[in-house]
Amino acid sequence: MSAVASAPTSPSGAVMTTDSPRVTSLRKIRPAVTAVALAGIVVWITLIKGDQAISDYVVMAAMYAVMAVGYDFTIGMTRQFALGMNACVAVGAYAAGLLALKVTPNPLLGALLACAFGAAVAFATALLAVRVREFYFAVLTLAVGLTAQNLAIAWQTLTGGASGLVAVPGLGDSTIVKPDFGFWLPLTVGSVAILSIIGLWVRDSSLGRTFRTIARDEELAKAFGIPVGRYRTLAMTMTGFVLGYGGFLYARYVQFVVPDSFSLGLTVTLILMVYLGGRGSIWGPVIGAVLVRAITRGLQGHGEVSSLVLACVLIGVLALFADGIAGGVRAAQRQLRQRADR
Fold first, then answer.
1. In which element (H, E) is residue 166 found?
2. Rounded Cα distance, 65 and 192, in Å
3. How many other C-beta atoms can be found within 10 angstroms of the C-beta atom of residue 39?
4. Are 293 and 61 in contact (CB under 8 A)?
């Protein structure tokens, strides 16, 4: 008499399924494949279209998406409401611009220097601010951002003062009048794809789980022996690194660097992108950057109307979905799965 092996069951009696190593590997690489595929499609469609205005929008939206995803390490994964991270973008842009103007236009060196300066500013800010909480943390980081902008205006011999740096060398065959979109589209959209893959890896790693534990309950994290200050500093430094890279992209694309580009308004814009799309979700900040740039570009020349529309959109989205658009999508997916299981 032969016996038939039964499938393993959980304590509740439900049948448990085990995936093969191949299926597990495919699930792990699926986000990377999706990100690369989407990036390729966006670049291909934009280049085929050949419209300069659309190409410029895609490049700028991707540039802001890079910065928003980087910002999400701080205000999304660890829930640190840092208001002065515009300083990291500023030092990255000035470092890249000064290197290109005075030493070498080499883009790799420019990117590395910008990332290093952005990370250094974020690290220094973290040393000052991570030991305080909420309101005081926000005020301290805000002071750093305002100091950086005022320093850029005052230090005329280095930064050019209010006039800034002009005629920064572009990348590819770009000129001030006509950027080389054949170069910039793959660079910026590809940067979003690569950074999203890294962000997803961080989110699902032990580091990401530690970040989330700190975000949920710092006292509980300390009880587990987690050095909260060290991890909060690490998150801010990661943000500064990415924002420095965003400053490099900005300086070499627009080919001029002025202090007004890195005001508190930049911080507010990035926070809006992260919260609108959904903080802590990686894809959310990308969605937020695309939407915010679309609204501001569509209402260009109507600053007050643009701000009002963005405020209404944010209030409406957060009223419906506390975790932004990405949170709303996840909630809808859960509801569909629950209905399918009934």
1. strand 165-166
2. 7
3. 21
4. yes
First vs last C-alpha separation in the chain = 37
Length of the chain: 342
Provide CB contacts within 8 A for 15, sequence distance 6+.
7, 8, 9
Residue 256: DSSP 8-state: E
The two three-digit tokens of residue 23, written as one number: 């299926």
Alpha carbon distances (Å) from 84 to 31, 156, 236, 323? 31, 22, 11, 23
Residues of the chain predicted below pLDDT 70: 1-33, 35-36, 302-303
The C-alpha torsion from 54 through 60 and 63 to 68, rounded to 10°, is -110
CA distance readout (Å), 302 to 84, 273, 295, 311 = 26, 19, 11, 14
Rounded to the nearest 10 degrees, what angle do helices 107-129 and 86-102 cross at? 150
Return phi, psi of residue 284, to 5°: -55, -50
pLDDT for 1 equals 44
Helix (H, G, I), strand (E, B) or coil at 15: strand
Question: Residues near 56 by Cβ (< 8 Å), separated by ≥ 6?
Answer: 179, 181
pLDDT of residue 242: 97
Instruction: Determine the residue type at 274.
Output: V
Predicted confidence at residue 121, as pLDDT, reads 96
